[in-house]
Design brief:
The protein has about 270 residues and is an alpha/beta fold. About 35% of the residues lie in helices and about 25% in strands. The protein has 10 helices and 14 strands. It has an 8-stranded mixed β-sheet with strand order 5-4-3-2-1-12-13-14, with helices on both faces. A 6-stranded mixed β-sheet has the order 8-7-6-9-11-10, with helices on one face.
């Protein structure tokens, strides 16, 4: 299996990162060196913002590839491979739908920054969101933002996640696709723009096939990626639907399951 794998993609929250948002940096750097010698690429695949993701890998981020914003932004080293561009009328519709529900806390994600609208979300929510979006700005009106929009990331009451997911699919179906990573987090993305599409762009760039790819995940937004890769792993802490989409189960994020498997693949 080690000679076959030329690309390893990992989700971050709940998969690669422990619950305290850390990972074994020294162990990872040793593994990255072995992967590099074997000609295997390491891809960070997350629903989070690129600027947040790269900060987890100081000193080596330019060696890695990133599938950020659930596939809406793809970067290999310092080169942008793909960036979604949501049509302006779709942007307006998504804002209008979210505004109809006061309990939705909306974040609009662009290439330059992410945005929260003053008066629509609390300062506490803004500061919490800043943990996942290292470039985040207050604006008076989301409609006036001139950035290239990649996706929306509305947060809903956790117990209503499925209800709102269905609502978004019904109201925005055809224009945007709703994907959920659970816990009240829903992403509204351009159809066909998901982690697997980002991996496919990188695979084409590197001249490799899905049979040479491995992926690790724990959420619903990882399922396409797990189905795309020949070697797919769900961490032990993943829900059943994600485990069912994967071919293998590995130890949980808090037991460094991803690094444990990589150490086995590239000893």
């Amino acid at each position: 299996m080690d000679k076959m794998i030329k690309m390893i993609a990992v989700d971050m929250d709940g998969t690669f990162l422990r619950s305290d948002q850390t990972y074994d940096t020294a162990r990872f750097m040793r593994a990255l060196g072995r992967m590099r010698k074997a000609g295997c690429r390491f891809v960070v695949a997350s629903g989070n913002q690129y600027y947040q993701l790269r900060d987890f890998f100081p000193g080596c981020c330019d060696e890695l590839s990133f599938v950020a914003e659930n596939g809406a932004f793809v970067k290999d080293g310092q080169e942008v491979i793909f960036s979604a561009d949501m049509p302006k009328e779709t942007v307006r519709l998504a804002i209008e739908v979210c505004d109809e529900y006061p309990e939705i806390r909306n974040v609009m994600c662009g290439v330059t920054s992410a945005y929260c609208q003053s008066g629509k979300v609390s300062r506490e929510f803004f500061e919490l969101t800043g943990l996942y979006y290292h470039r985040l700005k207050w604006v008076d009106d989301l409609r006036d933002v001139s950035d290239r929009i990649l996706k929306f990331a509305p947060t809903v009451p956790e117990e209503k996640t499925d209800e709102y997911h269905k609502m978004f699919q019904e109201r925005l179906g055809g224009r945007l696709e709703a994907v959920s990573s659970g816990h009240g987090s829903i992403d509204l993305i351009v159809p066909g723009c998901h982690k697997a599409s980002g991996l496919a762009r990188l695979a084409e760039r590197f001249g490799i096939s899905p049979k040479q790819c491995a992926a690790f995940g724990d959420g619903g937004n990882d399922i396409e990626m797990l189905e795309y890769c020949r070697y797919s792993f769900a961490v032990e802490n993943a829900p059943e639907n994600v485990k069912n989409a994967a071919k293998y189960i590995c130890p949980s994020n808090d037991r460094d399951g991803v690094l444990a498997v990589i150490d086995q693949i590239f000893p």
